[in-house]
Amino acid sequence: MSQNHTETLVNNVKGVCDSNPNPLFGRDSHVQQVASSRNPGSACKMKTNKTSKIAMWNVHTLHQIGKLENVVKEMERIKLNNLGLAEVRWTGAGSMQLDSKTLIYSGGHIYERSLGILFDVTTAKSLGSWCRISDRVVVAKLVAKQLNLGIIQVYAQTSDSEDVAEEKFYEEIKNAKGYLKSQNIIIVMGDFNAKVGDGRVEDVVGPSGMGTVNERGSGLIEWCQINDFTITNSWYENHPKGQ
């Protein structure tokens, strides 16, 4: 597997952005996918007429030989167009070509946290630009035929983190949304380390949520209510490991 690796060390919380059209890379018990409620249930289409398949995986680390190759094979096996990755545990930020795939990633200065998004060859052609917000938030713009799509990939702090860290995390998501201000549809996906409960909450949480709502879950629900988002994977039955 060929790899062309470009890395840039970054410090700016507001993000270091790349307009390269060829520059993005989950499965855990606390994964949530959030989509704008202005277009509930919409199928996002790129330049082809096929529906785009998007997923997220908490890989726990790619800082091991062979792990990235295994993720690419799994993406190909289930025929995904985009795969968001949490807990990559790489340093720096940059883009990488993996045969027919394109990976953008965003890390810090030590081998923990970090995340990214992996695109297949077709979707990579629609990638207009991307921006590193932090080692917990990265954002990409996809230019489509009928509408534009923004993807924000996130990895939240654990439940024992301080409240100030949670506030900073949501501020970083706000910065990412600002980067996508001209987009038609915004998808926020990743590992929020949150449980939103198994009962419906307005148009935010559906009947197929997870367990008993916890503090992080309450924060996520409140954020969705304020920003007009829906937690999409609470509206259909999930395997317990995928909730």
UniProtKB/TrEMBL annotation:
<dbReference type="InterPro" id="IPR027124">
    <property type="entry name" value="Swc5/CFDP1/2"/>
</dbReference>
<protein>
    <submittedName>
        <fullName>Craniofacial development protein 2-like</fullName>
    </submittedName>
</protein>
<dbReference type="InterPro" id="IPR036691">
    <property type="entry name" value="Endo/exonu/phosph_ase_sf"/>
</dbReference>
